[in-house]
Specification:
By secondary structure, the chain is of the alpha/beta class. The protein contains 21 helices and 21 strands. A 7-stranded parallel β-sheet has the order 11-12-10-13-14-9-15, with helices on both faces. The longest helix has 31 residues. The structure holds adenosine-5'-diphosphate and magnesium ion (MG). Magnesium ion binds next to α9.
């Protein structure tokens, strides 16, 4: 296939600008879809709004005056007579048109109309007039130095030269079934829409194609997992597991027991485990992970647990260490802040098999790390990792079994797509004695009430989390609360009676760990933080969560934050402080179920905020939008599965194309 630089008109400078937009291949270029369209209507000067788009016919009335600026830029002005009046026209960088714009020439001007100045800033001038009444203009994401117009011309040139070579991922039988236009036509339409109806059909077809090929990949991955990946088949004694469970400080819930037995079945079976353990915050997934790791080590293999933050990895490490104290196995912690010397030792002992359990951050998947016989890999808070990161860890072992854990309840659509290749275990039931967290919304004027509620809790020797969106006040932070500011205020309110401290993402890891340790030991009573504590950290004596500027956060994030309290049997509460957006926040008052909240969040804000952070590209579709395109997704899923099963995979070119780009070992 040709490359972008082969497209006529694209030189080295344009090439680097296109790269900046993430465009590297001709396929990238022609699928750089407009993010919206401007509808230009043929109209009169009077009908057009100020700053509105206009298409208008008329005659040149004055000789165009050309002005030249630095860097080869130029501008031309002339008077223009139309049936609805005389208007000035300006056009940039079209000096070459001057000779064609003799006084009296009939032209069509397309542009933006500034009513006050009575000037049209033209984007285009057409000789001899246009035939249609309305024009739909694509608007692209651009970058400085690359205009909408030049982008559009590169795309059209690429389509003209190489349009036939762009792969169509829809098999011909489905093209016929739905009477879809072919790929090249669809691309031509989306970049140069002849009419609204044709555009809609082309968009539908491109969405279908994108979802079809995505779901085809998922079917393929699913089958690869089942067939090719001969996993480890282990000998596991129920007795040893039961003995270990007896040493736990609490009784497992029946969902936890069920989860463990599903995992143990997977470990015994000759196929490779590829399982997602989903459970709301506080549902007790960690102990299930520890038991799985233990069973795996009993059967003679190493176990690894990867967490997204050091705080969380460290907490897991201490908890597991306690559970393992009467066993002969060695557990180590590997994070970014492990000293170089310690690291070397850990690498060596992982390689020679002296370490059975390893817990860490993504330091676990650095290239230097080699394992003796990695049998099980668990990733906690899975949604924080990208697909490639999780595949990396898989590649470390021979054929390790994999368990993903996620506390972010995933709406149906997502479960179907991002996790569509996995088996799913759900933990719904919460550990015994947990009470719902009482949630209330307060305005900034009611801060005194909030402080007295906090005081009541402190008197009972309970601890409190306070969350703010910013670390420090700054010039443009407006009314938003910051961690540092709140610390001063709380100290004024509570005097020296209670120890108040802060934690945030900009602090050094050792400092953060120390603070978390002190909070865990109740040396700190009020911990003020940004959302760094969002993920996983467990302090059962913390009963109150106060979130300032709650309207700044997505519902899923609020739910995750709220899940930091209510982890023991004590009644807990969550206070959301906000003067606005109360309708959305009310959902938090009424709903405790994370799944319902995520569905609401998804409806309101899309997946961008669902995971608290922008996802790492795994789930970005170019044209499909899962909020609206759920029906197309279901159809594409059904069709792609049917197609997948209709013949052997990879027996023709299209199948190869469909599964290309899948990163698998
Ligand atoms: P999450 O699912 O959010 O990761 P954790 O695994 O951190 O939740 O568990 C939350 C808290 O509940 C921890 O303090 C844990 O020790 C406790 N816990 C887990 N299972 C049970 C149980 N069956 N009974 C009582 N407490 C439990
Ligand atoms: Mg957890």
């Amino acid at each position: 296939m040709a490359e972008i630089k082969d497209v006529k008109g694209i030189g080295p400078k344009a090439l680097s600008l296109l790269n900046k937009l993430g465009i590297y291949t001709i396929e990238d270029l022609v699928t750089h879809y407009p993010f919206r369209y401007d509808i230009l209507k043929r109209g009169s000067l009077q009908e057009t709004e100020d700053e509105g788009h206009i298409i208008i016919d008329g005659k040149v009335e004055s000789v165009p005056i050309l002005m030249r600026f630095k860097a080869g830029l130029n501008k031309m002005n002339f008077r223009f007579v139309t049936p609805s009046g005389v208007v000035g026209v300006s056009i940039f960088n079209r000096a070459f048109l001057k000779s064609q714009l003799a006084v009296g020439t009939s032209i069509t001007v397309i542009g933006k109309y500034d009513k006050k100045k009575n000037i049209i800033t033209a984007s285009e001038i057409k000789m001899g007039g246009l035939s249609t009444k309305e024009r739909i203009e694509p608007v692209y994401h651009c970058t400085s130095g690359l205009t909408n117009k030049s982008l559009s011309s590169y795309i059209n040139m690429a389509l003209l030269m190489y349009g036939r070579e762009i792969p169509d991922y829809i098999p011909s039988e489905y093209l016929e079934r739905y009477q879809f236009v072919n790929k090249r036509t669809a691309l031509n339409i989306i970049h140069n829409p002849p009419s609204g109806e044709k555009l809609e059909n082309a968009i539908y077809r491109l969405k279908y194609e994108e979802l079809f090929s995505f779901m085809f990949k998922i079917s393929y991955l699913k089958r690869q997992n089942k067939l090719n990946n001969k996993g480890l088949s282990r000998d596991i004694s129920d007795h040893q597991l039961e003995e270990f469970i007896k040493t736990l400080p609490f009784r497992l819930t029946s969902d936890q027991t069920k989860a463990i037995s599903e995992i143990v079945e997977d470990l015994r079976a000759p196929h490779r485990m590829n399982r997602l353990l989903q459970g709301d915050v506080g549902s007790g997934k960690t102990i299930v992970a520890f038991l799985a790791m233990y069973v795996n080590v009993l059967s003679g293999y190493q176990s690894a647990l990867m967490a997204p933050t050091e705080i969380l990895a460290t907490q897991h490490y201490y908890n597991l260490k306690e559970l393992l104290q009467n066993t002969p196995y060695r557990l180590e912690l590997l994070t970014g802040s492990t000293s170089k010397k310690e690291k070397q030792q850990i690498y060596e002992d992982l390689k020679n098999g002296e370490i059975s359990f390893i817990i860490g951050t993504h330091a676990l998947i650095q290239e230097e790390v080699e394992y003796h016989n990695l049998g099980l890999v668990i990733t906690d808070e899975q949604h924080r990792f990208g697909v490639n990161q999780r595949t990396n860890l898989q590649n470390k072992g021979f054929m390790p079994d994999i368990l993903y854990m996620s506390a972010t309840p995933i709406p149906r659509t997502y479960a179907l797509t991002i996790y569509g290749d996995m088996d799913v275990t759900l933990i719904k039931e919460r550990p015994e004695g947990r009470k719902p967290i009482i949630t209330s919304i307060k305005t900034n004027d009611e801060i005194k009430d909030v402080l007295s509620m906090m005081y009541e809790e402190l008197k009972q020797n309970h601890q409190i989390y306070v969350i703010a969106p910013l670390i420090e006040d700054s010039e443009n932070s407006g009314d938003l609360k910051s961690v540092c500011h709140l610390k001063d205020q709380m100290q004024l309110a509570f005097k020296d009676k209670y120890h108040i401290d802060i934690i945030h993402g900009k602090m050094a890891t050792a400092a953060k760990d120390l603070i978390m340790q002190e909070f865990l030991q109740n040396k700190i009573q009020i911990l003020i933080s940004t959302t760094v504590i969002e993920v996983g950290v467990d302090v059962p004596n913390a009963t109150t969560m106060v979130i300032f500027d709650a309207n700044r956060f997505g519902l899923s994030t609020l739910h995750q934050l709220r899940g930091r309290v209510g982890r023991g049997s004590i009644q807990s509460q969550c206070i959301l402080i906000s003067d606005s957006d109360t309708k959305r926040l009310k959902i938090m008052e009424q709903v405790q179920d994370g799944f319902v909240i995520s569905e609401e969040d998804f409806k309101l804000r899309g997946h961008g905020d669902l995971f608290g952070t922008k996802q790492s590209g795994d789930m970005t579709f170019k044209i499909a939008d899962l909020r609206q395109d759920y029906k197309i997704l279901l159809q594409a899923k059904k069709d792609s599965e049917e197609y997948f099963q209709s013949r052997d995979v990879c027996d023709d070119e299209l199948r190869k194309k469909l599964i290309s780009g899948i990163f698998m070992n």
